[in-house]
Amino acid sequence: MSAVVESPAVAEQATGVRIRDVHKTFHRKRRPGRAALEGVSLDVEPGEFLCLLGPSGCGKSTLLSIIAGFTSADSGEVIVGGRAVTGPGHERGVLFQTPNLFPWLTTWQNVLYGPKARGVLTAEVREEAAELLETVGLADARDAYPHELSGGMRHRAAFARVLINHPGVLLMDEPFGALDAITRAGMQRFLLELWQKRRTTIVFVTHDVEEAALLGDRVCVLSAPPGGTKAVLDIGLPRPRSYDDTETLEFVQAKRRIREVLER
Ligand SMILES: Nc1ncnc2c1ncn2[C@@H]1O[C@H](COP(=O)(O)OP(=O)(O)OP(=O)(O)O)[C@@H](O)[C@H]1O
Ligand SMILES: [Mg+2]
Q1: Cβ of 55 less than 6 Å from ligand 1
Q2: Number of separate domains in the chain
């Protein structure tokens, strides 16, 4: 994977996310509804890297999906870049645990899908797509189909497909959860470099305390189901960060602080 290149053509406008008293209950046939979120409030600053952590079923994916506009809240509001979220939008880039590439399109076609669908597929966009594929180390795989790519390559292709849309905020739901340890460390390094260059706002869901401490400026811990905000911790470790930092005393202390909140 090559280093992330800085290009004026990809200087996104980082946007803030304001979440106010969001409630969500999933209704089920002939059974009582199941509350997923009970009064979540949170502000994510423009350019901030925020990790969302909490036990399984506490509503992390539901919250991300509400910010993305795929799911609507029962009450409360989500404001992204000053506008209330009413549905999905390309200014919010979403990456899931399983990269959702179109299997019938090549890497190149997948990356160009968004601009094409929006009718903005210019020579400049094609040039940027080529640069992005270079950046994510997939220049040689541009004509390959998703089934011909490794797990890590698919993730990087999905990244490029989202980044071409210049999202002001990246919403990531355990994106590296299914990867092996080495590929995962590579993707974390890539994401840190990318964020260091572009300062796109990131909301990153993870189960992993170490991943949260390595990546986040702050870590928001959601409580056991149904989720509410339990605590928001400032990580305070210096930037730029790298995997080597995980061996420092400060890093171990940050992990301990997160664990204490999780366990209380
Ligand atoms: N579409 C849905 N229909 C019904 N219930 C749902 C739906 N999506 C989520 N839920 C319920 O809402 C709660 C929160 O689910 P969610 O997927 O947001 O949790 P999570 O924190 O992401 O968990 P995990 O860490 O396991 O991914 C769970 O009880 C789940 O069963
Ligand atoms: Mg989830």
Answers
A1: no
A2: 1
Q: Does 62 fall in a domain?
A: yes
pLDDT, residue 33, reads 86
pLDDT of residue 12 exceeding 80: no
Mutate which of 22, 24, 26, 229 for ligand 1? The one with the most ligand atoms within 8 Å of its CB, which is: 26
Give the model confidence (pLDDT) of 119-138 as tens digits: 999 999 999 999 999 988 89
- DSSP run (H or E) holding 227: none
Determine, yes or no, domain membership for 72: yes
Are 42 and 220 a contacting pair, CB within 8 Å?
yes
Q: Quick check: 24 and 74 in contact, CB under 8 A? A: yes
Is residue 26 within 6 Å of ligand 1 at its C-beta?
Answer: yes
Residue 2 lies in a domain: no
75-80 and 49-53 strand pairing? unpaired
89 lines ligand 1 (CB under 6 A): no
Q: How far is CA 107 from the centre of its chain?
A: 20
Q: What is the domain-level CATH number for residue 241?
A: 3.40.50.300
pLDDT value of residue 124: 96
Domain coverage including residue 183: 8-263
Which residue has the CA at smallest separation from atom 28 of ligand 1? Answer: 57
Q: Is the pLDDT of residue 45 over 90?
A: yes
